[in-house]
Amino acid sequence: MPRINYRSSDIALMARMMRAEAEGEGNQGMLYVGNVIVNRVIADCSDFKDVRSVHQAIFQVQGGNYSFEAVQKGNMFYQRARTGEKRLAKLNLDYWRQHPAKFALWYFNPYAPCPSTWYDQPFSGQFKNHCYYEPKAGTCDSVYRG
Fold first, then answer.
1. Which sequence ranges form a coiled-coil region, renumbered to this chain (predicted)?
2. Which of 6, 21, 86, 118, CA to CA, is 20 to 30 A from 15?
């Protein structure tokens, strides 16, 4: 049973986002970005109460901007999905998740050491240039069940 319901078009869309956000961090880095996308669909809290699909997670607008910078700035996001990234996206959608992004809802590249919190959310770990953050205990239990 997959972690979330999805269509084949979701695999390609997610693969494009994973590549655009983390190609320089290899397959592992792309898988962590995929974790965050799936976790946002699972989460029934915070900014993600109305996010119930891969499409909604990727094209969500918060504070007047897309949640994922690659949607508005990334040339790679608008390129066709490649077979390797589609395979990784399907792994995320079906079962794969791992620390530090196992329960993460946010990540960013600070171009400096990772802060211990980000918008009051605790740091869960770092992989290469990205810092990952999961919800504070008791604020989003749904992400831990998904």
1. none
2. 118
